């Protein structure tokens, strides 16, 4: 055991160092071995002299040690307290739940299943909002919900961090208790007159606790990822937040090594207890695999695919699978319909008017209502349509990345299976190092230089992100699949087939691969859940799919907030979570859809398990599940409900997004013919046409010219009183609005116009087409810059098909 423990410690430390050097390896989108080796050498040199490590703050450089120890000890305290609380609560609850009547027992199990599907972000946000709501109602602060210079919160982070591990441990214990109840010794104990509580406490629970201890590494890995989210949302000065704020590859590696030491000691103590508890078998057979017979393997795969037709028929007879599949299919169909029928258009309402079209009723943002099902953001964008638009990216990424992980890991698992036992032992230790670090932080350091690179296109960044999110899971999943192959190889029927003369390829094709297929299907669904959670965590780190752009929070204020170019849900979470206290619905609804998606995927997973229990994965053609009429009708009724929901959503699309006909336009103008001119034409101040292009040549937007003297009366005459006037160092900025569109004028100390800015409802292609003869200076998808004679014209993307255009003196000429 000492040798095995030493190898495990050495390989895990080595793995953390090797992973810590990965961000050095990329030159834009290219992985370069020479950069990786030089970065690894630099990293090792830094680790050998930790006193020289520094991190940058606004006040300058500061020594990493001992500053990093305070957040480290805080995070360790929160982490292990939450873990121990979760395990203790799970043991107590498992005993109480197991004593319930069967009907209540099944209901509690289903509730725990639903809670297991809730992402950590929703738990943390709900805790915060509840404490704030309770404080507003009673003026009593239950717990501090954020850190300050005087204190760090403990209670709420520990409770939030313990919820999901509690549910996971409870599910593991309940599953183990159910299996133990079928063992003969339990029936003997019950037959001797022992009470149910006595049997549970002294016979079943000790054996199930051993199974829980073996699976605690997975629970710890979940908790490490959750710790990052908790520290970000509660603004806690912990180790993961410290790395995110000040980190580089060296600081990231140091922090992970610090965290690994207590976790390693914790698992070492558990392994010693397990060795005392029971003797484990470590022997595992190896299989020499010849690629010359790959055709035989391919034939085996083909045979399994042919049998999938019966499997799918069985899956779609399971109500749980149908509910999960139907929800995801509805989301995907609505998102694709929204794209191809309505060009992914997101309605925008900056000002809401009465039926007369003149009287303003309010301005964005709007709360959820019958007009705006999920409300709007401060720019007037309908959140419902943003979520629908981003569904195809969110679901598509989850299933694509999971499929790529499974495909490459399958071949990686075969390679792992073919290795010698000693090599496997070292490789398992290297791979295990990924269980002691938040994967989102590793992805952050790799993706940050790419996502912030304005020279790369949307799909350059998107494809790179897909590859990185696929690669980070390949070692772990490959080892898992290889271990599953080993477990199947140890079965008695494999030994019998070998005795009867079956070759290794025959064994793999006829026995191992068919028994591995259901495991792969379950693993695929699990990876979908992991990818969804990882995307949500990256959203909090502002790593959005296809790149992260910036938008002014208030027009003309220069306060920039991040936003997603694709409306992918993690991007919505990252964009809106800073506004949680002002408009909670903006983050709650994207997180809620994330939660519903994870629940749907878990329902599909449960459906696959139930189909497997009924024999759907049997290789014999004789299997035919027996169903009564009600069982046959339930999936059909579920499909009809989803079709009805889809029709309802489609009708809303048609109502909100239908193009305005010429007749409707004429009727509208007739109705408004007596209205003031400013409200008669609901359009931008400046249209993008030949006249405005000619105006750019002269430094002009609309009726205003750069260099002309501007008086506030000019604006009042054109646009009414300014919404806001700012004065600084003799310069003045006027903010106007016309039918919801902003117009900004900047003047110098002599009230001469220096720059002009307004909004346009156009696409990027419209701008490129109208200004095709101009000299484009930027390839950024969110910005276009043109030099027109002595003036510079800038276009900035501020929303879906919404841009600002500004004209100013060209200081570079």
UniProtKB/TrEMBL annotation:
Report the protein name in the record: ABC transporter permease subunit
Can you give the residue ranges of the ABC transmembrane type-1 domain?
A: 72-270, 391-605
What family does the database annotate?
A: Belongs to the binding-protein-dependent transport system permease family.
* TM segment ranges: 7-26, 72-98, 110-134, 154-174, 219-244, 250-274, 319-340, 393-417, 429-451, 463-481, 520-545, 585-605, 633-651
Asked if the Swiss-Prot or TrEMBL record annotates the protein with the keyword Transport, the reply is: yes
Query: Does the keyword section mention Transmembrane?
Result: yes
Its topology with respect to the membrane? Multi-pass membrane protein
At the top level, the lineage of the source is Bacteria
> Where does the protein end up?
Cell membrane; Membrane
Swiss-Prot/TrEMBL keywords: Membrane, Transmembrane, Transmembrane helix, Transport
């Amino acid at each position: 055991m000492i040798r095995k423990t030493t190898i495990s410690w050495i390989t895990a430390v080595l793995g953390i160092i090797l992973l810590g050097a990965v961000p050095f390896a990329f030159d834009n989108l290219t992985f370069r071995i020479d950069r990786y080796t030089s970065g690894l050498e630099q990293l090792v040199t830094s680790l050998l002299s930790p006193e020289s490590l520094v991190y940058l703050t606004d006040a300058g450089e500061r020594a990493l040690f001992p500053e990093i120890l305070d957040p480290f000890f805080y995070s360790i305290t929160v982490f292990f307290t939450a873990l121990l609380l979760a395990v203790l609560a799970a043991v107590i609850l498992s005993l109480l739940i197991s004593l319930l009547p069967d009907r209540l027992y099944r209901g509690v199990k289903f509730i725990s299943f639903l809670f297991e599907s809730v992402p950590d972000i929703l738990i943390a946000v709900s805790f915060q909002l509840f404490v704030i709501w309770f404080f507003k109602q009673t003026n009593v602060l239950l717990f501090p919900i954020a850190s300050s210079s005087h204190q760090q919160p403990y209670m709420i982070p520990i409770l939030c961090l313990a919820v999901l591990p509690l549910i996971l441990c409870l599910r593991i214990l309940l599953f183990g208790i159910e299996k133990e109840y079928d063992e003969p010794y339990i029936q003997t104990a019950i037959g001797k007159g022992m009470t149910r509580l006595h049997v549970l406490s002294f016979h079943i629970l000790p054996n199930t606790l051993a199974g829980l201890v073996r699976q605690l590494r997975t629970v710890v890995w979940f908790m490490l990822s959750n710790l990052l989210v908790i520290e970000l949302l509660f603004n806690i000065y912990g180790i993961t937040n410290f790395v995110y704020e000040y980190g580089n590859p060296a600081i990231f590696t140091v922090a992970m090594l610090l965290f690994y030491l207590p976790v390693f000691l914790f698992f070492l103590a558990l392994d010693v207890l397990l060795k005392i508890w029971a003797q484990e078998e470590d022997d595992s057979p190896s299989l020499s695999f010849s690629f010359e017979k790959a055709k035989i393997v391919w034939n085996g795969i083909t045979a399994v695919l042919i049998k999938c037709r019966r499997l799918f028929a069985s899956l779609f007879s399971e109500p749980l699978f149908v509910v999960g599949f139907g929800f995801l299919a509805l989301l995907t169909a609505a998102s694709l319909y929204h794209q191809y029928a309505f060009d992914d258009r997101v309605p925008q309402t900056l000002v809401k008017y009465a039926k007369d079209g003149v009287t303003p009723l309010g301005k964005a943002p709007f709360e959820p209502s019958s007009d705006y099902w999920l409300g709007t953001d401060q720019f007037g964008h309908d959140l419902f349509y943003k979520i629908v638009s981003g569904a195809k990216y969110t679901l598509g990424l989850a299933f694509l990345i999971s499929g790529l992980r499974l495909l490459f890991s399958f071949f990686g698992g075969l390679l792992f299976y073919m290795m010698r036992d000693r090599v496997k032992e070292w490789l398992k230790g290297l791979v295990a190092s990924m269980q002691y670090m938040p994967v989102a932080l590793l992805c952050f350091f790799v993706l940050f230089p790419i996502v912030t690179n304005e020279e790369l296109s949307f799909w350059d960044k998107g494809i790179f992100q897909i590859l990185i999110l696929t690669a980070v899971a390949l070692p772990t999943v490959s080892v898992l699949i290889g271990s599953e192959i080993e477990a199947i190889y140890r079965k008695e029927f494999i030994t019998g087939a070998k005795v009867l003369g079956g070759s290794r390829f025959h064994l793999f094709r006829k026995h191992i691969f068919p028994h591995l297929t259901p495991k792969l299907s379950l693993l695929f669904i699990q990876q979908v859940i992991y990818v969804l959670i990882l995307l949500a965590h990256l959203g909090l780190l502002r790593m959005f799919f296809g790149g992260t752009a910036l938008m002014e929070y208030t027009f003309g204020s220069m306060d920039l907030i991040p936003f997603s170019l694709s409306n992918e849900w993690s991007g919505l979470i990252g964009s809106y979570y800073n506004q949680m206290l002002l408009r909670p619905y903006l983050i709650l609804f994207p997180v809620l859809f994330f939660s519903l998606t994870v629940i749907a995927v878990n329902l599909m997973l449960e459906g696959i398990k139930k189909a497997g229990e009924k024999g759907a994965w049997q290789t014999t053609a004789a299997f035919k599940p027996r169903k009564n009429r009600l069982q046959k009708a339930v999936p059909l009724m579920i499909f009809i409900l989803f079709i009805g929901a889809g029709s309802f959503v489609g009708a809303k699309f048609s109502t909100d997004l239908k193009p305005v006909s010429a007749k409707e336009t004429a009727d509208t103008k007739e109705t408004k013919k007596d209205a003031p001119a400013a409200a008669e034409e609901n359009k931008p101040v400046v249209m993008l046409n030949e006249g405005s292009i000619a105006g750019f040549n002269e430094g002009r937007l609309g009726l205003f010219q750069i260099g002309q003297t501007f008086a506030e009366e000019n604006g009042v005459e054109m646009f009414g009183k300014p919404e806001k006037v700012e004065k600084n160092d003799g310069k003045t900025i006027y903010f106007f609005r016309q039918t919801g569109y902003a117009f900004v004028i900047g003047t110098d100390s002599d009230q001469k116009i220096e720059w002009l800015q307004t909004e346009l409802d156009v696409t990027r292609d419209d701008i490129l087409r109208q200004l095709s003869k101009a000299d484009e200076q930027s390839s950024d998808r969110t910005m276009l810059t043109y030099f027109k004679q002595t003036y510079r014209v800038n276009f900035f993307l501020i929303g879906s098909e919404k841009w600002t255009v500004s004209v100013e003196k060209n200081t570079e000429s």
